[in-house]
Amino acid sequence: MSGHVVASPEGFQLPDSQLRVIRWMIYLAFFALAIGILNGLGQALNYSRVDILQYFPGMRNYYQGLTVHGVVNAIVFTFAFANGFLSLTTSRALARPLRSSLLWASFGCMVVGFLLAAYAMGSGQASVLYTFYPPLQAHWTFYLGLALLVVSTWVIAAALGLGLRAWRKEHPGERIPLMAFISVATYAMWVLASLGIVVEVVGLLLPWSLGLIEHSDPLLSRTLFWYSGHPVVYFWLLPAYVSWYLMVPRHAGGNLFSDSLTRVVFLMFLALSIPTGFHHQYTDPGIGTGMKALHAVLTFGVFFPSLLTAFSVVYALEIGGRRRGGTGLISWFFKLDWRNPALVAQVLAMLTFTLGGITGLINASYNLNQIVHNTAWMPGHFHMTVGSAVTLSFMGIAYWLIPYLTRKELVGGGMALISSWLYTAGVLIMARGLISGGLDGMPRRTLVMEAPYEKPSWELAGMLTGLGGTLMFIGGVLFFTVLAATVLSGKKAKEPQDLPFTKTIQGPAETGWELRLDRFRYWIIATVILIVVAYGPFLVEYLPGNFTSPPYRFY
Amino acid sequence: MTVERIEKAFLILSAAMLIAFLGALFYSSVAMGMHLPGREGEIVPTDVRNTPPFDQPGVHEVGAGEYEVVVLGRAWGFEPSEIRIPAGSRVTFISTATDVIHGFHVEGTRMNAMLIPGQITRLTYEFDEPGEHLIICHEYCGIGHHLMYGRLIVEEGS
Questions:
Q1: Minimum Cα–Cα distance from B96: chain A residue
Q2: CATH of the domain spanning A23-447+455-499+518-542
Q3: Percent of chain B having pLDDT more than 70?
Q4: Do A374 and B28 touch (CB under 8 A)?
Q5: Is A289 in the B-facing interface, judged by CB distances under 8 Å?
Q6: What is the mean pLDDT of residues A54-59?
Q7: The domain that contains B58 carries what CATH number?
């Protein structure tokens, strides 16, 4: 019954030309992360009333730094990593290279988009934060840059889709290899999800910033933004899930249990990620409470596949722990290979994500959200999701991916382990600070050290935020040291490696209902229907909108 | 096949937990009256000061122990910047923004909403305990965002 997750499990090697373009995408991702982490230190220290941003070259103010921090971490880093990593998993799973021309085109879009946005932010003409809510207006290059970054993901989606179609023609009647299936499902979700932000940026904000349209509609823009702004968190997360499902079991010496359950989980993410955006707008006027309640139910629905993931991934780890001699209900956990940097980073990421998930469910909790909305609780929450579940997982993946892509051996495995532990300790301490401060009203996205108001309880919260952020920063510096040392001075690996994918205990079924899982077309139709149900009534009632806000540049 | 049975139990328990949480939330909303802001109508943001009730920002007593507080959010302050009401009053905040998006959080309460240009925000709350609350703008609204705040003082009832 056991099954493979890729076609040609033995001995297939991707051509160098394919690896080269993927390597550049991954380099771009971590270059962006380095800038983001440096700015992050300044953000965290703000809460403990230490101003280091004044020493940053070219930095005009806190909000400019916060914009850079959000855009390069949450958009450039995550998009570039997903583009590279899921191109690799798909082409390896199909044992069939993707079109290099498309991959280079995507890379080109990312570089040009990044440069345009960097110009706008660096010159102080786009201090609008990464949510860029109108009527605060940025320079047109900011919007164009963001649009190109999204286009880069569409080009990858086209490359994956064409690759899958060609593979199916060559292998009629065969099940799609699991690693390709979940990679393509991720991009299918994101292509549908990104439509909101593209309509907002290309259709409304870009012409508005060029003076072609005079007014904006702030509520409509927020709605379009959050149509994409919630599912984007799954676009950040699902590449990490690909690794948790298919590679972490291998690092741990275990196996993934069920092929079918894995496919079901990714299809649930495809269908349920998008019709949930109003839970970011619970406190917005102009949207009926009935629609907000519907989105609350659907958001609880999209929590379900993450609970399934907890089961599958922990079971895979348990198999590994027991094979290494672990016994008991819990103690197998301590028998895992705690000297493997790729495994340790991702297991710590999972543990942190437990808290990230719980706090996320609280955010999604309809009227309970009013207690925490836009307080420091929010960055406390999402640094335990995107800031560690995703970032720390991508770092863990890098510990085998960079050696694989450069054909060099990892340098500094011990330092990599220290990096993961420091980063984890840091994020937990920082989140403790932000969450407790937030519960006591401390606002997010605010230069609190210069605010004329404060509460005594914010002092401890701020100290913990600064301390945790500093530890995260040191963890990040160690990570980049390992990365640079590997790229610059790693020993040549003796033989070519393959990706570290697992096998499933229950492989893909050859007959029965499971075959329908592979028919993406039907799942995409179901997703579109859900989107229409979730957003249609609001749009019918609200359009043509209230385009009466002139632009402001208060920065 | 113990694993499959454990798996099934885990799925059922997970779903049951989520449904129970949702049940509690809807109970608190419907039965206990903890409402979110909804659809209250639209306004032209550049003409707010000529549009009732926003032509008269401030505290207005509308009945015994009932108040309407009309609040404007603008870069970078609230009008009025200080609100005084007696303990035990039921207060409806009617507010909007005149320029960019602002936040409105009466810290220590669940009075937490967005002020969006072009939209009217309405919230109702009963202030039972005397005391002082910060009103914090918690949405980035430009270079002076951290300077934007107000105070709400609940005075001892007479």
A1: A285
A2: 1.20.210.10
A3: 98
A4: no
A5: yes
A6: 81
A7: 2.60.40.420
Residue B158 has a pLDDT of 59
Is residue B107 located within the same domain as residue B142? yes
Considering only CB atoms, B146 lies closest to which of A301, A446, A552, namely: A446
Closest CA to A84 of A388, A433, A430, A402: A402
Q: Which of B10, B28, B108 is opposite residue A367, by nearest beta carbon?
A: B28
Residues B82 and B23 in one domain: no
Strand partners, B126: B90
Dist CA A452 CA A99 (whole Å)? 57
Q: Residue B41: enclosing H or E segment and its boundaries?
A: none
* Dihedral sign of CA atoms A482, A485, A488, A490 in order: negative
Domain count within chain B: 2
In this prediction, residues A274-279 reach a mean pLDDT of 97
Whether A295 sits among the annotated catalytic residues: the reply is: no
Q: In this complex, is the C-beta atom of A280 within 8 Å of any C-beta atom belonging to chain B?
A: no
- Same domain, yes or no, for B43 and B106? yes
Average pLDDT, chain A: 96
| Residue B66 distance to chain A (closest CA, Å) | 22
Average pLDDT for A206-228: 97
Which residues numbered 76-95 in B keep a CB inside 8 Å of some CB on A?
A: none
Find, among A88, A155, A149, the residue nearest to A118 by Cα: A149
Size of interface A-B (CB pairs under 8 A): 193
What is the model's pLDDT at position A2? 85
Question: A136, B101: Cβ pair inside 8 Å?
Answer: yes
Is the domain of B130 the same as that of B74? Answer: yes
**Cα A187 from Cα A100, distance rounded (Å):** 18
Determine how many CB atoms are found less than 10 A away from the CB of residue A10: 7
Q: Which of B36, B117, B146 minimises the CB distance to A367?
A: B36
Mean pLDDT of A176-183: 98
Residues within 8 A of B (CB atoms), A 116-155 only: 127, 129, 133, 135-136
Question: Using one digit for the tens of pLDDT, what is the confidence trace for B109-120?
Answer: 999 999 999 999
**Which chain A residue shows the shortest CA-CA distance from B43?**
A546
Enumerate residue ranges in chain B where pLDDT < 70: 1, 158
Chain B stretch 117-146, residues whose beta carbon is closer than 8 A to a beta carbon of chain A: 117-122, 134, 136-146
Reported residue count of chain A is: 555
Let me know whether B27 and B55 are in one domain.
no
Mean pLDDT (whole number) for A188-213: 97
Q: Which of A64, A204, A278, A453 to mutate to test the interface with B (most CBs of B within 10 A)?
A: A453
What ranges do the domains of chain A cover?
23-447+455-499+518-542
Q: Which residues of A69-100 are buried (b: 16+ CB within 10 A; e: fewer)?
A: bbbbbbbbbbbbbbbbbbbbbbbbbbbbbbbe
Residue A242 has pLDDT above 80, yes or no: yes
In terms of CA atoms, which chain B residue is nearest residue A308?
Answer: B11
Domain that holds residue B12: 1-35
In a shared domain, residues B88 and B139: yes
What integer pLDDT is reported at residue A439 of this predicted model? 96
Contact by Cβ (8 Å): A137, A552 = yes
Tens-digit pLDDT profile for residues A331-362: 999 999 999 999 999 999 999 999 999 999 99
Question: Residue B140: CB partners within 8 Å, gap ≥ 6?
Answer: A63, A66, A129, A136, A445, A446
Contact A284 B38 (CB under 8 A): no
